[in-house]
Design brief:
The protein is mainly alpha-helical and about 200 residues long. It has one domain. Helix content is about 45%, strand content about 5%. It is built from eight helices and three strands; from the N terminus they run βααββαααααα. The chain has a three-stranded antiparallel beta sheet with strand order 1-2-3. Helix 2 packs across helix 5. The radius of gyration is 17 Å and the shape is globular. The two termini are about 35 Å apart.
Length: about 200
Amino acid sequence: MLMTKPSPENKPSTDTTHLTPQIEVTKIDFESVQVDTSKNTEFATINSNMIDKPLANAILLEIYREVAQRSSPVDPSDLVIAVCMLLQKGGTSRQMNANSYYKYATAQVYRHDLSTVLGGKFKKVTARQFARAMAQKIAETALELNIPGNQSKNYQLDFPDATDEDLCWASDFQTFNPNCPEHVRSWLLKNFQKRFRS
């Protein structure tokens, strides 16, 4: 379900006296995060194409700080999963509405959180490069939660009998992931060439 921020007249109270004090998080390691399917989820709207994992973790930490400023407490593991699923649902695209978000348990991450962090301290990194660095964690999370990728509709047009697993792998940032099924990777590459080189 696509959600946007409330309008100014419907903004929630800014009184934070009832909130539990936020634990200072100084490091996030996305590879150690496990998906808990019992937690609530909600979606609302190595080459030059990739960054390394330490940089991806630094970006996650900045996103965490951005999110923690407006809501508390935020579990870092929940944040990683919310970021993964926002990217999976199309957060790599600049055309995604800035108020689109993905909520997983205690973490609600907006597309504008990605834009703020990637447009500030990490302005040389694109959302797609960030997603490629986390591609395996995004795939594992998507498969666990059965969240189709941002290219799944196009993939299903070419393969109407596609499996749920294939649809979860059908994300534009999975092209260089060696764990992505070869037939999906091949399609992603052809689809990329068709969209950008024709």
